[in-house]
Each structure stands twice: as structure tokens, then as C-alpha cells.
Write a structure and sequence with these properties.
Radius of gyration: 15 Å
Largest sheet: 7 strands, mixed
Shape: globular
Number of strands: 7
Structural class: alpha/beta
Strand order of the largest sheet: 3-2-1-4-5-7-6
Strand content: 25-35%
Low-confidence stretches: none
CATH superfamily: Vaccinia Virus protein VP39
Helix content: 25-40%
Distance between the termini: 35 Å
Mean pLDDT: 93
Number of helices: 5
CATH class: Alpha Beta
Length: 181
């Protein structure tokens, strides 16, 4: 799968971190949830790069159908990030690529992500940086997070060991958190 130029740096960083996590659990393998997978590009890329089991969810049926046509190695399901149908402690990692700002109740989605993660599981959120020169004219610019606001949201959702880094261009950021307990 082809990445957009502005995604490459942080997506590769996520893959690197997932591979580090995988080294800690080599016998069981990791199970990843792609929250808001759209047509499946990121989920398929993660599957190809890490070899992990990946499940992508999106509330738009047409996007899921397109994702299913793109790959049979990833499971794609129509689901809302705010009301996940998975049991507690199902996933080792939750990821999201340029979607969190589009989720109507992002706090509920983050809390649901925490619920479905196993203890010590990680969340990796890549999204646009609010106020960055290159993002100011985007249609959703008012919904973008500042790094501080993303850190607060992850903390409020119950994540610890939170780190936020921006890409070199300063237009995208990667938020990482760990499920405590």
C-alpha cells in the first residue's frame, strides 16, 4: 500500500514501535485495531509491514466494502469507534491515522480504545496539528488537536506514559499512550 508523503515519517515510526512491542510478545503475536480505517490503506500497510493480525473498523459501510476488496489478509468490520463490539482486553495495540478529529465523540472513542486494550497495551494516534501553517485552511481545521489537547484527552481516557511528537514538517503528530493496569 502506498502512503501519502506527509504520512510516511510517522507511520514508519508506528511500525517501528509495533515491531518493538512484538519482540516482547514473540510467541503470541500482536492483535491490532485500526480505529476509523476508511478504505483500509493503513490497516493493510500495518499487516504487510509487521505481519500482525489487524482488524479495521469504520462506521461507513461503503468504505469497509472497498477495504475488503483491497485485501483479504485484514478483517474489516462496520463499527463505530464510540461503541466497539469487541470484548474487554481484546487488542494489544489500537491505531488511528488522521481520523480522531472526525469522530463526533472522540473521548468516548478513546475510552472504548482503552477498554478493548489488554493491560500494558498501546494506542498510537496520528492526526493533524491544530494551528500549524499547513493545516490552517483544511476543512476540519477547527476540530484538530494541539499536542497539549491530545495529551490531555489521552490522559482523561485513562492512558499513561503519554508521548506526543510531531513530524518534521510540523503538520502531523503522533500521540502514544499505554493502558495502565
Amino acid at each position: 500500500m502506498e502512503l501519502l508523503e506527509n504520512e510516511v515519517e510517522l507511520v514508519r515510526e508506528v511500525c517501528k514501535r509495533i515491531k518493538l512491542e512484538e519482540q516482547l510478545k514473540p510467541k503470541t503475536g500482536l492483535k491490532i485495531l485500526d480505529m476509523g480505517c476508511g478504505t483500509g490503506k493503513f490497516a493493510i500497510y500495518l499487516r504487510e509491514e509487521t505481519g500482525c493480525e489487524v482488524i479495521g473498523i469504520d462506521p461507513v459501510r461503503e468504505k469497509i466494502e472497498k477495504a475488503r476488496r483491497r485485501s483479504s489478509s485484514v478483517t474489516f468490520e462496520v463499527q463505530s469507534a464510540e461503541e466497539l463490539l469487541f470484548p474487554n482486553h481484546t487488542f494489544d495495540i489500537v491505531v488511528s491515522l488522521k481520523v480522531l478529529h472526525e469522530i463526533p465523540d472522540y473521548m468516548k472513542a478513546l475510552k472504548e480504545s482503552n477498554r478493548v486494550l489488554k493491560g500494558g497495551g498501546k494506542i498510537f494516534i496520528i492526526d493533524w496539528v491544530a494551528g500549524a501553517a499547513r493545516t490552517g485552511n483544511h476543512a476540519h481545521a477547527l476540530r484538530y488537536f494541539s499536542p497539549e489537547r491530545l495529551q490531555e484527552a489521552l490522559s482523561e481516557a485513562g492512558f499513561g506514559a503519554i508521548r506526543i511528537v510531531t513530524n518534521k514538517a510540523g503538520e502531523l503528530m503522533l500521540g502514544e499512550g499505554m493502558k495502565l493496569g
